Amino acid sequence: MDTMSQIAALAAECIKNLWPDAEGLPGAEDLRGLLAVPPDPALGDYAFPCFRLAKPLRMAPPKIAEALCGAWTREDVASVKPVNGYMNFFLNRANFAAETMVALQAQGDRFGSSDIGKGKTICLDYSSINIAKRFHIGHLSTTMIGHSLKRIFDFLGYETVGINHLGDWGTQFGKMICAYKLWGSKEEVERDGVDAMTRLYVRFHEEAEKDPSLEDQGRAWFKKIEDGDPEAMEIFTWFKEVTLRDAAKVYEQLGVTFDSYAGESFYNDKMEPVIQELRDKHLLTQSEGAWVVDLSEDNMPPCLILKSDGATIYATRDITAAIYRQNTYHFDKCLYVVAYQQDLHFRQVFRVLEKMGYPWAKDCVHVSFGMVSLEGAALKTRTGNVVLLEDLLDQAVAKAREIIEDKSPNLENKEEVARQVGIGAVVYADLSNNRIKDIDFRWDRALNFDGESGPYVQYTHARACSVLRKAGDVSAEPDWSALTDDEAQSLLRLLSRFPDVIREAADKYEPSMVTRAVTDIAQAFNKYYYEHRILDGEPAQAAARIALTDAVRRVIKTGLYLIGVEAPEKM
Do 343 and 474 belong together in one domain? Predict the structure, then answer.
């Protein structure tokens, strides 16, 4: 049992003993959730707000706190003190150090993992790049938030399904094929990939301004795709393969993988039964020639299902995809990691699923996030202000290499470390703040080895590895009483809370909580490192400090892994 659970159980026992007949009192599990960390360490390690008991006990919170503190007998766990309606706990430092270190050593690299997700499946829809378009910085957040959440849920024992819902449907693909047939060549597309397709697409629109009949040809080619014409499908499938081959380079740099690439086109032959189901359930109504689901009772615009020309749209495919995923994977949650601008779209889709009578619609969640700018400049496709993600990552690696050359000219394997640090800096910067906040990516912050950054946390991990290499094999039995100083206790408290952070990050779909936790641990360890001679002193005391250093190394490495960042052992 972890320390917070132990304190909660003992406090719940105190409450029950003092007021055995009272109703509506929190049990140990509820009480654990109410425990807070005081802003000032002088007020204790944990605090229970007695305001929660005021109503059922009909007592003032200060009186409740005094009564609870008077009934507390477990000084071996923590001493207590009533402070302004709070029951404040001051941990028994020696016992806390011993219990925390034993747990850290027992679980090793799996510290913070659990089996709470055993038997449950979570589908994650993220990245969702567009075919025949380059992977740009606007795709970074959806890709890395989704990837991190997948790792977090895996770590908690869930079965996860990572889905790249490709944008591979629409008239633009007919225009692409038309342009290719008129002006393109297989050699050029194979050589230049998506860049060649982009040039063809741009030329199509330039030529269509002079010859509007090209638009009809483009629509005709898309109709061929819809009808499964062999030539159209061969070219269309090839365009997808070329795009994914280009994207694979970026995914490999980021360490991102998927279990499914079923995109919009995958659902082309699956939509008609869903549309018929909407008709059969009397959910479709006609509006200006189009077919919609009326959502006025939910204060939302109608959800368009079929346009007046009979064409389907995003909502039709997303509703179909959700039903397919539930039938295929039997998910307990289906997460859509998509920018906040699509909030209305997903509210409409989920509500339509509810109106269709699917109880699992409540388990569909839009995990929204803010926009990305670079050095204060917003990124807009129409104005050409687009930063390709591959270029950004290459630039980050190059800048990291320059810094490493300056700071560690004799470092072995500099190229590999520059790759780990550069890409880690980009990912860390993306996942360092609450996901709903807009991000302004700035090089000076992202690659700062001394600030709250990826390189700073990676360097701390490398520092811990360096200490452990110098320590060599340690045979002495650790004396955990060597870890009762303020710096060690602060570090141990952060380490002990790490499992809670992971679970909360999963509950709130918020990877930045893990980023924040490993940053706090790195800062606390560096303070400990500067205040204490880890390898000096009595062997048993040195063994305890070395064990703490190893625990820090493991937890930082785990935390970085969970957000998709590598942990170099030398920097």
Answer: no
* Residue 435 domain-assigned (yes or no): yes
Provide the number of structural domains found in the chain: 3
Same domain, 357 and 408: no
Q: Which residue has the higher pLDDT, 131 or 325?
A: 325
Domain extent, residue 203, equals 122-367
- Domain boundary pick from 367, 388, 414: 367
Is the pLDDT assigned to residue 493 strictly greater than 90?
A: yes
Dihedral of CA atoms 198, 201, 202, 204 in degrees, nearest 10, equals 160
Q: Which residues are tagged catalytic?
A: 133, 136, 139
Dig out the tokens for 147 from the structure: 């990837």
Q: Is 501 exposed, middle or buried (0-12, 13-18, 19+ CB in 10 A)?
A: buried
Provide the b/e sequence for 397-415 (b: ≥16 CB within 10 Å): bebbbebbeeeeeebeebe
Same domain, residue pair 351 and 238 = yes
What's the pLDDT tens digit per position in 46-78? 999 999 899 999 999 999 999 999 999 999 999
What CATH number has the domain bearing residue 335? 3.40.50.620
Q: Is residue 214 located within the same domain as residue 358?
A: yes
**Torsion over CA: 10, 13, 15, 17 (sign):** negative
Is 60 exceeded by the pLDDT of residue 383?
no
Q: Which amino acid is at 389?
A: L
Return the minimum-mean-pLDDT range out of 4-13, 20-29, 47-56: 20-29
List the CATH number of the domain containing 68: 3.30.1360.70
Q: Are strands 377-378 and 439-441 parallel, antiparallel or unpaired?
A: unpaired
Shortest CA distance to 7 belongs to which of 114, 87, 97, 85?
Answer: 87
Find, among 101, 100, 93, the residue nearest to 45 by Cα: 93
Given 73, 91, 109, which residue is the final one in a domain?
91
Q: What is the token pair recorded at 564?
A: 């998709």
Contact 298, 351 (CB under 8 A): yes
- Shared domain for 65 and 149, answered yes or no, is no
Per-residue pLDDT tens for 348-380? 999 999 999 999 999 999 999 998 777 766 554
Q: What is the pLDDT of residues 156-168, one digit of tens each?
A: 999 999 999 999 8
- Helical H segments across 58-156, by residue range: 61-71, 93-107, 140-155
